[in-house]
Amino acid sequence: MPRNLTYRPEIQGLRALAISLVILAHAKISGFEGGFVGVDVFFVISGYLITQLLYCEHLSTGNINFIGFLARRLSRLLPALVVMIIFVELLASFFLSAIEFEEQTSSILFASTWTSNLFFAFKTFDYFAELQVKDLFLHTWSLGVEEQFYLLWPLLLMFVFLKTTRQTPHTSRLLMMFFVIFTASLSLSIYWSIKHPIWSFYLMPSRVWQFSLGAVAFFLVEKFTERGKKSSSSPLAQRSSFLIAILGLLLIILSGVFMNTKLVYPGFWALFPSLGAVLVIMFSRQNLIAKLLSHRVFVWVGDRSYS
User: Fold this and answer.
1) What is the sign of the dihedral through the CA atoms of 30, 25, 290 and 181?
2) How many CB atoms lie within 10 A of CB 148?
3) With 60 as the cut, is the pLDDT of residue 127 above it?
4) I need a labelling partner for 245 at 20 to 30 A (CA). Which of 14, 53, 216, 224 fits?
5) Pick from 283, 280, 282: which is nearest to 298 by CA?
6) What is the mean pLDDT of residues 136-162?
7) 3-state secondary structure of 223
8) How many whole angstroms separate alpha carbon 220 and alpha carbon 289?
9) Are 294 and 13 in contact (CB under 8 A)?
10) Distance between CA atoms of 9 and 12, rounded to whole angstroms?
């Protein structure tokens, strides 16, 4: 396993695809009602990148600086969040009536503290009050899930590392943990999708299986990379990787086109865009898909996808 982080511009391109789907869905562009699946892609990417970051830090230093990790996340994410909240509040105070302003900015405190997913999961909406479901900070729910993942994931990895006697931890222990989390979280997601669909959509426990998929993808990518260094890839292997990466892109794009808000989501349906993201991450290295996603336009959009 490498001790240094590996920059992959094609993953930034995948971010660009994800944010494009989300924007198309929110803009109510015909044919992209299911663009909300872009958030699922983001969760898988986060699982991949954060696991890579934490694992490489442990290999290099022998531990994980939990406070330092959180500080880096805050310094990267907080400025854009603050600017957005201030900008939206100013515009809302200018364009909305007092009643509209109160109804549509009621989640501001939760949005400011990355807990808006909890606010929307447990808030009782009055379905006859249309303003309540047009909260201007509704989109920050996914940031809440991300931040809660940032709190949980380092602690889980640190626990596994402490239980491992060797200097280099056995990846099998980590993979077993990811499998358990994946199974339990996906089962909870499917159950909540039936019994408490709002919980399933907004709460981190029913979403963490997607981060686990990204974590597994990290270890599989590194394993394939090490194997590729020892023996040159055959044309058949390269062609197969290219076709699998295309399948991954199709799973994401077709999910954005054919899924809709009438589905019981996430539950089982979220597997399609999530597995699509895993396939792109695993099989888009050094082929035409990687070149496409690494185009400077896609990378530029991906670099700014959070903002």
Assistant:
1) negative
2) 19
3) no
4) 53
5) 280
6) 93
7) helix
8) 19
9) yes
10) 5
> What angle is formed at CA 270 by the lines to CA 266 and CA 272, rounded to 5 degrees?
165
* Distance, CA of 84 to chain centre: 20
Question: Which candidate, 294, 277, 289, places its Cα nearest to that of 243?
Answer: 289
Count of alpha carbons within 13 Å of 135, Cβ hemisphere only?
Answer: 22
Lookup result for tokens 């019994």: 195
Question: Over 70: is that where the pLDDT of 283 sits?
Answer: yes
Cα–Cα separations (whole angstroms), residue 182 to 52, 72, 147, 163, 185: 18, 26, 19, 21, 5
Rg of the chain over CA atoms, in angstroms? 20
Residue 57 structure tokens: 């830090």
How many angstroms separate the Cα of 40 from the Cα of each of 6, 68, 106? 22, 27, 26
Coil/strand/helix, residue 69: helix
Binned at pLDDT 50, 70 and 90, residue 119 comes out as very high
pTM: 0.91
As a whole number of angstroms, the distance between CA 19 and CA 202 comes to: 18
- Span 191-210, mean pLDDT? 94
Calculate helix-pair angle for 66-95, 141-162, nearest 10 degrees.
Answer: 170
- If we measure between CA atoms, which residue out of 266, 205, 225, 299 comes closest to residue 9? 299
Element (H, E) at 84: helix 66-95
Task: State how far Cα 285 lies from the chain centre.
Answer: 20
Residue of 34, 3, 95 whose CA lies nearest to 258:
34
pLDDT of 270: 95
pLDDT of 90 higher than 60? yes
Instruction: Give the C-alpha distances (Å, rounded to integers) separating 68 from 29, 72, 82, 151.
Output: 41, 6, 21, 12
| CA 62/CA 7 separation, integer angstroms | 22
CB 143: neighbour CB atoms within 10 A? 18
Least confident of 85-99, 104-118, 215-229, 239-253: 215-229
Query: Cβ distance 135 to 107 under 8 Å?
Result: yes
Of 154, 128, 164, which Cα lies nearest the Cα of 69? 154
